[in-house]
Design goal:
globular, two-stranded antiparallel sheet, D-tyrosyl-trna(Tyr) Deacylase, Chain: A, single chain, 39% strand, alpha/beta, six-stranded mixed sheet
């Protein structure tokens, strides 16, 4: 699985002009499933997200997790994270999971996160979404997990 994590002061996702998910301070998580990914890997991603120490402690050191600061998670599917631009200027997305597997694994990430964390919002799989955010730091971290 591929994820791009952004520490945010706030973030929101809209579909057709309507807000479908929003958080205050926390993590915006863009998620892409790959063909070889499994539910176990989706669960591993959520565990990593909840324990990732990228929020500042009292001394200003990145030492706290989203759970420690009672932050939100906004999880948005984004197959374009699997883009391959090595041959030419038009990206290839063949590295992304197909729609059925992609949907199942993204829904697993959201469901697992909701079971373990009190503040979870999400986008809509396959929709044309508009995501707005205020990156805090800025802090942006790519994560790639392989089975």
């Amino acid at each position: 699985m591929i994820a791009l994590i952004q520490r945010v002061a706030r973030a929101e996702v809209q579909v057709a002009g309507a807000s479908i998910g929003a958080i205050g301070a926390g993590l915006l998580v863009l998620v892409c499933a790959e063909p070889q990914d499994t539910e176990a890997l989706a669960d591993k991603l959520v565990a990593k997200l909840l324990k990732l120490r990228i929020f500042s402690d009292a001394a200003g050191k990145m030492n706290l997790s989203v759970a420690d600061v009672n932050g939100g998670l906004l999880i948005v599917s984004q197959f374009t994270l699997a883009a391959d631009v090595s041959a030419g200027n038009r990206p290839s997305f063949t590295g992304a999971a197909g729609p059925e597997l992609g949907r199942r694994l993204c829904e697993r990430v959201v469901a697992t996160a909701r079971a373990l964390h009190p503040q979870v919002a999400c986008g809509e799989f396959g929709a044309d979404m508009q995501v707005s955010l205020v990156n805090d730091g800025p802090v942006t971290i790519p994560i790639t997990l392989r089975g």
